[in-house]
């Protein structure tokens, strides 16, 4: 089955094209074509980066702020130029979308219908940086391929749908929970993929592992996984809760919001913007939401603001992992994944330092040099520590095929 995957983020649009008929082993299939549109690169511009499994690449910059025209340009690279892998877009048999918020209604992947689109739109208020982008991606496909090609929504909330009540219910009036104000959790596609991959790499049954997965990208979250299920996670009602992130605050005392609204006349939109876009690494450092830039500012400019931002990030990550260990009553395996988790040896080693007292030890050389899809713990470590390349797109492609063939 030929499947296109769209993974829309707040500031980027990743896409991948797979021919699932080509799969020959139990390893994740590599996409024949993959593309990323990045809007953060230069003000008012979209940068499109394309690569194929045959080593062809293409880069172009467009003065396109809107997703629709950038997606159109990206699609052109599927059917023309050096990166062409299809004669015509009509060869695509199904499209899978990562949809960030599925709310209470959607606990499993579904074929997208007008009703599903209406629900994604309704839930946009809970994930304003993500759900509208998903809808634009769905519309762009309909525009080109019509409604004959099935589109499937794979929800980032689904993996956490069975959180035990003490984790899912906030200590606020209970009727709010009945109105849907509860912990949903996000990055579920990645947490679930990494849990399965960890079991595979360790040659253990997933059901016998107590896992903590650390998804550290622009958005960051932890999941505590037992019996293959998420039993706790750090993101909540929205993707703003929990760990410190690139530009999101993570958990802060809600009293701060009350104070700012009452004493400083902050509006709802001011707070939304400040907490989602201007907090986290960016807010503390005053420099950037990108961990590479934070570390460059520490190394090259001796920036004390960047150094503090880094220390808060580590402190909160260590504390979050400690909390997940308590929920799990232990830990067998710690997993690092996503942009920072996969690429940043210092974040991994600093995080692990806190758990030396448990006998968790990592091998400095493997951590620095060969971490991807490896166990970076020393042989005598009491906890396995894996770095896993998350393959959200591959997971979405498999799920899309499953839904389209049932
Ligand atoms: N090759 C790399 N080396 C170091 N850090 C990286 C690398 N690639 C990405 N990152 C870091 O990962 C973060 C972005 O993660 P990513 O998973 O790509 O985010 P998202 O999918 O949420 O957009 C940034 O802070 C960036 O600094
Ligand atoms: C849910 C979420 O935070 O996603 P991302 O990390 O892609 O922004
Ligand atoms: Mg991501």
Could you walk me through the main structural features you see in this protein, from its secondary elements to its overall organization?
This protein is α/β, with parallel strands linked by helices and 406 residues long. It folds into two domains: 2-155, ATPase, nucleotide binding domain (Nucleotidyltransferase, domain 5), CATH 3.30.420; 202-387, ATPase, nucleotide binding domain (Nucleotidyltransferase, domain 5), CATH 3.30.420. Helices cover 39% and strands 19% of the residues. It is built from 15 helices and 14 strands. It has helices at residues 67-79, 114-122, 131-145, 165-168, 174-178, 188-202, 254-263, 268-277, 280-285, 291-301, 304-328, 338-343, 345-353, 364-369, 392-405; strands at 2-8, 12-19, 33-38, 46-52, 57-62, 94-99, 110-111, 151-155, 210-216, 220-226, 229-233, 333-337, 374-375, 384-387. Strands 5-4-3-2-1-6-8-7 form an eight-stranded mixed β-sheet, with helices on both faces. A hairpin with a 3-residue loop joins strand 1 (2-8) and strand 2. Helix 1 (67-79) crosses helix 3 (131-145) and helix 10 packs across helix 11. The longest helix has 25 residues, at 304-328. It is globular. The model has no long low-confidence stretch (mean pLDDT 95). The protein binds adenosine-5'-diphosphate (ADP), acetylphosphate and magnesium ion (MG).
């Amino acid at each position: 089955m030929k499947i296109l995957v769209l993974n829309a983020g707040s500031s980027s649009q990743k896409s991948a094209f797979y021919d699932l008929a080509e799969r020959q082993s139990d390893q994740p299939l590599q996409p024949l074509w993959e593309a990323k549109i990045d809007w953060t690169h230069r003000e008012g511009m979209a940068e499109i980066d394309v690569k194929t499994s045959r080593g062809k690449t293409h880069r172009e910059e467009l003065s396109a702020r809107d997703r629709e025209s950038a997606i159109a340009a990206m699609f052109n690279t599927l059917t023309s130029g050096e990166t062409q892998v299809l004669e015509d877009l009509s060869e695509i048999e199904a499209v899978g979308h990562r949809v960030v918020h599925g709310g209470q209604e959607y606990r499993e992947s579904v074929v997208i219908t007008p009703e599903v689109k209406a629900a994604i739109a309704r839930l946009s208020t809970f994930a304003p940086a993500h759900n509208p982008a998903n809808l634009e991606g769905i519309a762009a496909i309909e525009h080109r391929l019509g409604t004959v090609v099935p589109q499937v929504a794979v929800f980032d909330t689904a993996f956490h749908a069975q959180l035990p009540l003490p984790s899912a219910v906030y200590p606020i009036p209970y009727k709010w929970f009945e109105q849907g104000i509860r912990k949903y959790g996000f990055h579920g596609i990645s947490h679930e993929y990494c849990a399965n991959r960890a079991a595979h790499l360790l040659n253990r049954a997933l059901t016998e592992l107590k896992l903590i997965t650390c998804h550290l990208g622009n958005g960051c979250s932890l999941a505590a996984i037992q019996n293959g299920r998420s039993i706790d996670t750090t993101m909540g009602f929205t993707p703003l809760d929990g760990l410190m992130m690139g530009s999101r605050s993570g958990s802060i005392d809600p009293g701060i919001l009350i104070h700012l609204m009452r004493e400083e006349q902050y509006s709802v939109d001011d707070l939304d913007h400040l907490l989602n876009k201007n907090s986290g690494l960016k807010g503390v450092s005053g420099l950037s939401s990108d961990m590479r830039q934070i570390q460059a500012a520490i190394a090259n400019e001796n920036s004390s603001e960047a150094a503090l931002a880094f220390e808060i990030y580590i402190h909160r990550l260590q504390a979050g992992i400690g909390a997940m260990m308590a929920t799990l009553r232990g830990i067998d395996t710690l997993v690092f994944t996503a942009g920072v988790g996969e690429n940043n040896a210092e974040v991994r080693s600093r995080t692990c330092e806190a758990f030396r007292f448990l006998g968790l030890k990592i091998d400095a050389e493997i951590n620095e040099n060969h971490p991807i899809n490896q166990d970076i713990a020393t042989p005598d470590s009491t906890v396995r520590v894996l770095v896993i390349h998350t393959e959200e797109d591959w997971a979405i492609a498999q799920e899309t095929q499953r839904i389209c063939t049932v």
